Amino acid sequence: MANCAEYLPIWLGLTRIGVVVALVNSQLSGNVLAHSINIVDPRYLIVGADLAPRIAAIRPHLPASLACRVLGSSTVDLKPMEPELAAVAGEPLLLSECASAFNRRDCLVYLYLRYDRLAEGGEGQPLPSHASGAIGSPA
User: Fold this and answer.
1) Which of 25, 111, 125, 133 is most deeply packed, by most CB within 10 A?
2) Kindly report the CA angle at 124 between 36 and 51, in degrees rounded to 5?
3) Residue 58: which H helix or E strand, with range?
4) Residue 59 lies in a domain
């Protein structure tokens, strides 16, 4: 998803229920985008309607088991996310629905901060760095 009003609440909500989120650069496309998605081995992918054509273009290079959803109106052949959002009550989460406390070593989010300089073509591929619960925590 590109920067939009829904981005932060979706990210924080997913984190609250224990999902590890990979923050992929919304400027990527083609093989570099496919690599960035595949390297973190996701089970679910949420894409904004404006970026859905990029996902549709690389869909053959993503695992068939990867559930892809599009947020917003799109002509791309991806399942819409809105019906799933409508099925959620909108009430605050119960404590039992929240992720249990994170261990300091648990991965909380993948950030793409490094590039593999040895990648084919010399362009470099994004490599995810994981941020754990230890970030900003006293030793």
Assistant:
1) 125
2) 35
3) helix 52-58
4) yes
